């Protein structure tokens, strides 16, 4: 068996187990010492963990950061990912900032399962190009009903849907774990909270915090996009959060921290 394939299956299975452990009382529960009477009692059930879900074409790991708690149902599982376009590095940077914030502030994810994947296209990020190593736009490579083969450009979605290892990792993650809502972080000249599927209400809540407009369409067709597949076809609320492309990671994090925490809360 190909060791990478085996490793990917095992890693995704581990994420499933971790999610399930986070969604029901577990013998692994680690109770904090009883706090002073003046403080509310809190229980941390499953410590934050890092799972390698698979590898890119150039064998870079695709890494999931998982924050979970007991007594939550599947409705409280959220996935936030960035870096699917390698020329949008602030999208990965803001996800890494969120990982650091949740690590330092466990109260922010108490009662929830929060999965964060900062670098969905690690080869593209390394090269600062939109596509993956095969020059395929991963955000046009999902098996959505509207997928179609297009001419070769930086938006080329491949000769068929779901051909790329980076796409397959995200498909397996979502099909096996069924998050209740998803935020896909990007960046472009005009920032917005774009939604697919039943995502309008969440987009409106995020807009109250980041001040970006809510848009049902990004303004041009996106056949085979993640939002078309997970939002339009699978009817999971999907927000494509477009950060301002001219802003730094620091400024984008500052302007979107509360919007992302609103998505964590649901
Ligand atoms: Zn993008």
TrEMBL record:
GO biological process: proteolysis
Alphabetized SMART domains for the sequence: Zn_pept
Cellular compartments per GO CC: extracellular space
Source superkingdom: Bacteria
Keyword vocabulary terms for this entry: Hydrolase, Metalloprotease, Protease, Signal, Zinc
UniProt keyword Hydrolase, yes or no: yes
A Pfam entry, by short name: Peptidase_M14
Protein name as catalogued: DUF2817 domain-containing protein
Lineage, opening ranks: Bacteria, Pseudomonadati, Planctomycetota, Phycisphaerae, Tepidisphaerales
């Amino acid at each position: 068996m190909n060791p990478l394939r085996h490793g990917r299956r095992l890693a995704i299975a581990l994420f499933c187990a971790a999610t399930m452990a986070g969604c029901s009382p577990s013998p692994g529960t680690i109770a904090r010492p009883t706090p002073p009477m003046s403080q509310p009692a809190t229980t941390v059930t499953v410590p934050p963990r890092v799972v390698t879900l698979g590898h890119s074409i150039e064998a870079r790991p695709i890494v999931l950061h998982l924050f979970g708690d007991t007594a939550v149902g599947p409705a409280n599982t959220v996935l936030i990912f960035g870096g699917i376009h390698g020329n949008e590095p602030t999208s990965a940077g803001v996800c890494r900032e969120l990982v650091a914030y949740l690590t330092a502030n466990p109260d922010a994810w108490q009662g929830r399962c929060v999965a964060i994947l900062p670098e969905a296209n690690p080869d593209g990020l390394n090269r600062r190009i939109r596509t993956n190593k095969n020059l395929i736009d991963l955000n046009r490579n999902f098996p959505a009903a509207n997928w179609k083969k297009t001419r070769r450009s930086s938006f080329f979605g491949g000769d068929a849907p779901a051909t790329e290892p980076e796409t397959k990792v995200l498909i397996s993650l979502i099909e096996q774990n069924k998050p209740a809502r998803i935020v896909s972080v990007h960046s472009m000249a005009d920032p917005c909270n774009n939604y697919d599927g039943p995502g309008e209400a969440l987009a409106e809540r995020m807009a109250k915090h980041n001040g970006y407009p809510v848009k049902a369409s990004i303004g041009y067709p996106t056949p085979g996009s993640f939002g078309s597949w997970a939002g339009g076809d699978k009817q999971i609320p999907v927000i494509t959060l477009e950060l301002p492309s001219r802003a730094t990671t620091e400024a984008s994090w500052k302007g979107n921290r509360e919007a992302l925490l609103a998505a964590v809360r649901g």
